[in-house]
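Appendix B. One record, verbatim.
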Amino acid sequence: MKNYTNEPIVVQAIINGTKVTTDKLYPRENPANPSEIVGYGPLNTREETVAAIDAAAAAFPAWAATPLKERIDRMQRAIAKLKAATPELAKLLSREHGKALYDAEGEFAVSIMWMEHACQTAVDILQDKVQEHENGKTITTYDPIGVVSAITPWNYPISLSTIKIAPALLTGNTMILKPSPFAPLAVSKVIELIAEEFPAGVLNMVHGDAEVGVELTTNPKVGKIAFTGGTKTAKSIIKAASDTIKNMTLELGGNDAAIVLDDFDVNDERAMRRMVIANFLTAGQICMIAKRVYVHRSIFDQFVEKYVEAANKWIRVGDPFHPDVTIGAVNNAGQVKFVQSLIDDAKKRGAKVIPLGRVLSPELFDKGYFMQPTLVLGVDYNDPIVVEEQFGPTLPILPFDDDEQAIALANNSIYGLTSSVWGNEEHAIRVARRIEAGTTMINTAAVQGLDVRFPFGGVKQSGIGREYGAEGLLGYVETHVINIPKVGELPYIPE
């Protein structure tokens, strides 16, 4: 496998099985060392995007008619290639993204886990369901939708692309995928590997600016949009797609609450470490990270003390390739500026900001888009750092007085992606049942509690539809009912 740690690479669009070169390129820098260019992505045009959509539309009839076993076999060959390429591609992802190498390797592992699970369960989920009953017989089939436009973000580019690619192609759809310009390189190489195992036009890829995104969401040949990203962008997509009433799966923002009950054991070091990881993995740049923590007032001071101890042990900021580093760089300068603005605003409002962990290389830290994680205390429940999705390495912790208040605080958000409750299991489950979220985890949070066998998605403005689990496959099909009634006269219709 090619070594991606030396010279900058150039990735291209893939249209109808062919790499399409262009002179219009954009650079992707290394967030840990912004003076280093890791590679270049193409700026594709609207015309090239139309060509990709046309190729997918032309490939759809034959691919939809391909037996499921062949689709699964092809996907399994792609998975085998991806496994072999993971060591080098994870390095490339770490360099272009800023996340620690172990974190990049973990993203590939989760991606492969889901792709394998989708292959293993596809037959049972997608086979015809035949029911014989007093009125005759009914056959329920699951038909592919058609052409799928997938638009993916930068924070977990591999997993948030394969989460769409595997079910879309296994169910007989064709696809055009657009990666984020903030992490376009490793995911492009992944898509190249997968596309090689499928007929031309089944899996296409384009890069580019707004005009590319507009075409992917408005073109009448597109039957479904699969988008992961910000809620604001999703609102524009919904409006753009309204003229053709497209099927959609939208996994959007989250401001995920963690509730620490009065019966939580603050001396449980492993649980406290899980909490720290749930707050700061990938420098806090995960949609399902726990972004605001509510702690029962009776244990608040003890919790903060033990939390700081755990954070100072686990958090080590620095070179993503250093074996001791747990948190690398923030992905881009704009995100650093936004997160810092929330911290500065909290300071102006009188909050106490506590730095966490250690910076292993101050010289590198000053060069790159690094932020030392911080704990923020003394903020109001409605301050911006609490109500907005920070998407970075800072965390407000606030007290509550009883379960009713904690539930109200957790639900007081336009978002409802994930949440977590920490404490006695039975008590925690009672509280969890009343939280408005797509997923609630008990005594863990974020990716530590993710299970690809079960559906994932949000409520309220955190999204529409579900990914992972059986629902992750069924989100890419249309349910088709075939009725075969018994021959006979209906008593309520006159002759």
